[in-house]
Specification:
Layout (H helix, E strand, L loop, with lengths): L4 E6 L4 H11 L10 E6 L5 H14 L4 E7 L2 H5 L4 E4 L11 H22 L5 E4 L4 H10 L9 E3 L2 H15 L6 E2 L2 E3 L7 E3 L4 E2 L2 E2 H5 L2 H13 L1 H9 L5 H16 L7 E6 L11 E9 L2 E4 L7 H23 L4
Parallel strand pairs: 1-2, 1-4, 2-3, 4-5, 5-6
Antiparallel strand pairs: 7-10, 8-9, 10-11, 12-13, 13-14
Helix pairs in contact: 1-10, 4-5, 5-11, 6-8
The chain binds ligand NAX.
The site of ligand NAX has 28 residues, from helix 1.
Catalytic activity: (S)-malate + NAD(+) = oxaloacetate + NADH + H(+)
Enzyme class: oxidoreductase
EC number: 1.1.1.37
Length: about 325
C-alpha cells in the first residue's frame, strides 16, 4: 500500500475549505488510488469549526483518508507537507487601503512560507488561493529560500474555467471542444483571458467568435468580474467553483496535462513573454512527469500584448508595495 500524501489546507473552516476537503478526501486532488492525510490549519477561533468539519469527514468513511490533524500552529501544519493549499487569507474590509491589505496578508504568508521552508517534504507543491493570490504566493516563496521557487504557484484556474464556460456558451460548443485557452497575468480584474491562441475544434477561438466587440466588452469583463457577479447573485463569494479549480490545478500539476492542450497557472516567471523574472504571473503551461513548463514560441498580437502588459504592471506594483512594506 502507498504511503499517504500529506495535504495541508489553511483556512480549512472557511467556505472554500468546506467545499474542498471532501473532494480531497475522496481522491479527486491526486487520484483515485492515492491515500491522503489531511492537516487543517486555522486561526484559534476557528479551530472548533474545523473540528466539526473533521467530524463530517470521519462520517464519510472515505477509504483514501488515512487521518486528519487540526492545528493553529503553522510549523505543525506544514511538517512533512507534500501538497499545501493556502486558502486562508485576510479579506479586504471596508475602508481598508491596499497597503493595509498587503500588510495583513504579509502577516499570514510570511510565517507560513517560513514554516514550509522549515518542515516541508522535498517534493512539496504549494498552491495559493487566498487573495491577493499572486502576491501572497510571492511573499510565502520569498520566505522559503530552501524550497525551489517554482514550487510556489497561485490560482488562476477558476478564471480559466470561467473563460472556457463563457466561450462554450457563446459558440454553442462543449467545453471539451476548446483547447489552449490562457489566462495571463494577475488573478484580479486586470487578468487577460486570451482567445487569440485558444482553439475551438481546431479553429482560432477569436476567429470562431468573429466579434471583437463581444470579446472586449462582454467576454473579458464577464470573466474578470465573475467573482463580483457571484457575490451579487449568491450573497456569498464563489466557494465550490474555487475549490473545484484548486482541485484541477493540483491534479494537473501532479498527473500532467492532456496532449495538445495546456492550462493556466500563476507561476514564477522565467522572463518568458516579457514578464519580469520572479513575478508570479499566469501563463499557459503544460505538465509532464510532475513538472510544469511555460508554453514557448507563441506569437503575441498587439491587442493581447497591451492587456498582458497592463496586468503584469499591476503585479509589479504589488511586488514593489510589499517590498516597500518590508514583507519581502
Ligand atoms: P472564508 O472567509 O470563508 O474562509 C477563510 C478562512 O481562513 C477562515 O476560516 C479563517 O478563519 C481562515 N484564516 C484566516 N487567517 C488564517 C491563517 N492565518 N491561518 C489559517 N487560516 C486562516 O473565505 P473563503 O470564501 O473560503 O475564501 C478564502 C480565500 O480565497 C479568500 O482570500 C478569497 O478572496 C480567495 N479566493 C480566491 C480565488 C481565486 O481564484 N484565486 C477565488 C475564490 C476566492 O475568492
Amino acid at each position: 500500500t502507498r504511503t499517504p500524501v500529506n495535504v495541508t489546507v489553511t483556512g480549512a473552516a472557511g467556505q472554500i475549505g468546506y467545499a474542498l476537503l471532501f473532494r480531497i478526501a475522496s481522491g479527486h486532488l491526486l487520484g483515485p488510488d492515492v491515500p491522503v492525510r489531511l492537516r487543517l490549519l486555522e486561526i484559534p477561533q476557528a479551530v472548533k469549526a474545523a473540528e466539526g468539519t473533521a467530524m463530517e469527514l470521519d462520517d464519510c468513511a472515505f477509504p483514501l483518508l488515512s487521518g486528519i490533524d487540526i492545528t493553529d500552529d503553522a510549523k505543525t501544519a506544514f511538517d512533512g507537507v507534500n501538497v499545501a493549499l493556502l486558502v486562508g487569507a485576510r479579506p479586504r474590509t471596508k475602508g481598508m487601503e491596499r497597503g493595509d491589505l498587503l500588510e495583513a496578508n504579509g502577516g499570514i504568508f510570511k510565517p507560513q512560507g517560513e514554516a514550509i521552508n522549515a518542515g516541508a517534504a522535498d517534493d512539496v507543491r504549494v498552491l495559493v488561493v487566498g487573495n491577493p493570490a499572486n502576491t501572497n504566493a510571492l511573499i510565502a516563496q520569498q520566505h522559503a529560500p530552501d524550497v525551489p521557487a517554482e514550487r510556489f504557484t497561485a490560482m488562476t484556474r477558476l478564471d480559466h474555467n470561467r473563460a472556457l464556460s463563457q466561450l462554450a456558451k457563446k459558440l454553442g460548443v462543449s467545453v471539451t471542444d476548446i483547447k489552449k485557452l490562457t489566462i495571463w497575468g494577475n488573478h484580479s480584474a486586470t487578468q487577460y483571458p486570451d482567445l487569440f491562441r485558444a482553439e475551438v475544434n481546431g479553429q482560432v477561438a477569436a476567429e470562431a467568435v468573429n466579434d471583437q466587440a463581444w470579446l472586449e466588452n462582454e467576454f473579458i469583463p464577464t470573466v474578470a468580474k465573475r467573482g463580483a457577479a457571484i457575490i451579487e447573485a449568491r450573497g456569498a463569494s464563489s466557494a465550490a467553483s474555487a475549490a473545484n479549480a484548486a482541485i484541477d490545478h493540483v491534479y494537473d500539476w501532479v498527473n500532467g496535462t492532456a496532449e495538445g492542450d495546456w492550462v493556466s497557472m500563476a507561476i514564477p516567471s522565467d522572463g518568458s513573454y516579457g514578464v519580469p523574472e520572479g513575478l508570479i504571473s499566469s501563463f499557459p503551461v503544460t505538465v509532464t512527469d510532475g513538472e510544469y513548463s511555460i508554453v514557448q514560441g507563441l506569437e503575441i498580437d498587439e491587442f493581447s500584448r497591451a492587456r498582458i502588459d497592463a496586468s503584469v504592471a499591476e503585479l509589479v506594483e504589488e511586488r514593489d508595495a510589499v517590498k516597500a512594506l518590508g514583507l519581502i
